[in-house]
Amino acid sequence: MKKIVCMMLGLSMALSLAACSETKSAEPKEHKKEKQETAAALQKEQAESIKLLKKEAVDVNKGLISEPEKHKGTTVKASGKISGDVKALTKGMGGSFNLIVKLGNKNETFKVLNYTMNNGLNNGDKVTVYGSFRGKEANSGKLLIQATLIEES
To answer: What would the mean pLDDT of 116-144 be, rounded to a whole number?
Structure first.
């Protein structure tokens, strides 16, 4: 009798576990198509945002540095050469680096705060940075750019 009860309990436990198992069902084609359409729409929106950013950006050679506090918040474009700590460059979003920009006949050093996901930058790379001009850094006196787009030249 005990053997029969134990077998019944074991069988009921096995059936209950089998009933609770999860089976993966194939994703309906409509969902896959909807995901692809959403991704395509996001890519198109991102491309339009980048185009608008580039169109609105003021080149730093246009006299921004003569009155940095007056131009805080201006969308800017700065082209130059990366200089600085390689560790900060590989950090990606949240890292920073120095950008040496030729302004007229002299070089100006900008501190770029990297708010992009770009972390493949190296010391000496030539880049164009688009972002928000933040004025001067209090400690170093360097001009600050909060980068939202970095393109390698």
So the answer is: 88
Across 33-37, average pLDDT: 80
Q: Where are the beta strands (DSSP E) in 21-142?
A: 58-59, 75-83, 96-103, 106-114, 126-136
Burial profile 123-138: b = 16 or more Cβ within 10 angstroms, e = fewer: eebebbbbbbbbbeee
Contacts (Cβ under 8 Å, ≥6 apart) of 83: 97, 98, 99, 100, 109, 123, 124
CA separation for the pair 111, 79 (Å, rounded): 13
Q: How far apart are CA 82 and CA 125, in angstroms?
A: 5
- CA 126 to centroid of chain Cα atoms: 19
Q: How confident is the model at residue 96 (pLDDT cuts 50, 70, 90)?
A: confident
Distance in angstroms (rounded) separating the CA atoms of residues 145 and 147: 6
CA distances to 39, 80, 88 from 63, in Å:
40, 16, 29
Coil/strand/helix, residue 35:
helix
Residue with tokens 């580039």: 54
